[in-house]
Amino acid sequence: MLNTVLYAINFGDFYYENLDCFANYSKLGLKEIVLIHVIDPAIFQHSLYSVYKKEDEEKIRRFAEIKLEDIKKYLEKSGFGVRYVIRTGNIAEEIAEEAKAENIDFVVLDKKAGGKPKGYFSFYGSPLYDIIIKIEKPVLVMRRVLFHSSSDFKNDRKTSCRNIFDDVVFATDFSEFSLKALPLISKIPDDVIKIFTILHIIDEKLIKGLKDSRDDEIENYEKGLAEKFESVMRGLNYRFAKEKSNLEIEVRKGAPCKEIVDFMEETGKKLLILGFKGRDREGLKEIIFGSTAERIISALPCSIMIVK
Question: What is the pTM of this model?
Fold first, then answer.
């Protein structure tokens, strides 16, 4: 069960709309919500229009306390235990430290969506990807839209948090770190996920190699792929099966980032779960994958749960 969540909140244009999402997270076993707001002095220091002063920080802190107290009372009406913390410092580092210090099961961040993805998203001044890299716990990045600001997104079901865990896509390359998502998926109660999709992309570089392979080599590759899918099912204790009509398997060929984003766009599914190692200086492969994951996070037309 996922009992405790850390919600990083910045009092932006749409934070209040997101509070209703927690009623849906209760299906996961959520009982406690920890709210965190970070005051970043660097924002003032780098501003052309103001100079950072300690008394300014105190004013912001008092404002934040009033807001957080109102949010606490609002969420408590739904039966959650709620507390909040205000930190001062680098946004990514402070959120990551709080996630480590608290008994947190997962972290929720908001990703504001406008029109077409521009390849860069920030979380009130700090690059979203930088925050994700530093957090060691699973991170749910909620893609939300200001409905009043863009008629193109009005009533878009992909940006709604309603029943977000009903129809889940698990993207995997069957590497060790991508399969780290399986324990988290296992914590989601059996009656929550109605349809579970395993999405595997055969990298276009591998496709070129397969074209020149002998028939027996291709057959062995396909057999190995089937065994890997079977291993995923064993990891989930066979909770999902085609016979139960709650399992879908999708295999595509091409560039991983593009194919994953295209699949989520075409199917209209609302949540992608991705096992993720992130940037790692130990090897070029991990760095390349990290940049791919960064593009996925930026371009994805839905919410994403990242597990390390």
Answer: 0.83
Please determine whether the domains at 1-155 and 163-308 fall in the same fold group of CATH: yes
What does DSSP say about strands 303-307 and 271-275: parallel, antiparallel, or unpaired? Answer: parallel
Helix axes 215-235, 204-211, angle to 10 degrees: 140
Domain 163-308 in CATH 3.40.50.620: yes
Residues ≥6 apart with Cβ < 8 Å to 282: none
Q: Are 126 and 91 in contact (CB under 8 A)?
A: yes
**CA pseudo-torsion sign 94, 96, 102, 106:** positive
Q: Is the pLDDT of residue 242 over 80?
A: yes
Phi, psi of 232 (to 5 degrees): -65, -45
Domain-by-domain residue ranges, the chain? 1-155, 163-308
C-alpha separations of 106 from 37, 86, 92, 242, 253 in Å: 16, 19, 15, 29, 32
Report residue 305 as tokens. 């749960």
pLDDT at 207 over 50: yes
Assess contact for 201 and 252: CB atoms under 8 A: yes
**What is the predicted pLDDT for the residue at 128?**
76
Task: Report yes or no: 229 and 198 within 8 Å, Cβ to Cβ.
Answer: yes
The predicted-structure confidence for 45-92, as pLDDT tens digits, reads as follows 555 555 666 777 788 899 999 999 999 999 999 999 999 999 999 888
Contact indicator for 141, 95 with CB cutoff of 8 Å: no
For 94-111, b/e burial (b = at least 16 CB within 10 A) is bbbbbbeebebbbbbbbb
Q: How far is CA 124 from CA 146, 169, 213, in A?
A: 16, 28, 50
CATH topology of domain 1-155: Rossmann fold (3.40.50)
Could you identify the residue written with the tokens 């865990």? Answer: 165
What is the arithmetic mean of pLDDT over 125-148? 74
